[in-house]
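Reading a protein record of the kind used here takes only a little practice. The integers have meaning only within a learned vocabulary of local backbone shapes. With that in mind, consider the following protein and its fold in token form:
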Amino acid sequence: MVSLRSPSTLPIVGVLVDGKTYRHLLYLLLAVPVGFIYSTLFSFGFLFGVVFSVVLVGLVLLVATLLGARIAAGFERWLANRLLGTDLDRYDDVPADAGGAVANVRKYVDAASTWRGVGFLSLKFFVTVLAFVPLFALANGLPLVVAPLRYPYVVNFGESNGEPVTWAIETLPEALLAVPVGIVGVLAALHITNLVAYVCRRMATALLGEPTADDGASKNSAGTGGPAPTDSALAAGSAPTDPASAHDEPEDDEPEDDEPEDEAPTGAESVAPEADEFIPADAVDPESDDGSDRGEDRS
């Protein structure tokens, strides 16, 4: 039977038909405007909050910034679950009811999840900078792929030392040459997109939440190499057997030797002494001819 291989598993070119690639690309497209919004709002909130912390306005601004960071971290967690393939749930480190307005504010300030969210939003700015690389390559590669349909035209790659970097495509051979160049640029852009998305996924897993219970159970079953034993199997007392343990038990197929050992002969059945051995007279049996003869010879 011939097994059909998914096109998304093909090396190098599989990213073109992989749906995850385009979800990652959408995540980076959203990261550019959202990252600048985070950078502007939270930089303003923390800076002016620290400056005016000597008065009540600064403290209120700092608290509002922290609460806003928690809301933004929740949005980023939702976004990572939808576009990056994570399965995260929010941290359960905030008490349900602390009693009083000051205590309720303090529980959010003391929660470690609040500062993890602030750390993620701070790193989000660098993700925004990295997102420009694949987006720039994709924006310049796609026009080259369709160059035979729109030549003559001039491709602008940006500026270098104040001079524009352009490529004037005026003939059909030049347009055909631009096609493989554009394909290479598109493939490189998509691979970089997946790489940046992988970094973002690791950041989200470390800072935005913890895996859900179902995800953890599936990882445990995958790590043991099979499904976990059911409750009925455990109640019956059955346990998985280890093939290797069968070889550790010694095999005892030979029957045990129950025959008693030969006892040493005693009395009359004792072995006769050698001729050169000295025997006392009182130890010789008078009824034995050999013993009497042997006694007479020695006397």
User: Anything to note?
Assistant: The CA atoms of residues 221 and 227 lie 5 Å apart. The longest strand covers residues 153-160. The two ends are 106 Å apart (CA to CA). The beta strands are 88-89, 153-160, 163-169, 210-211.
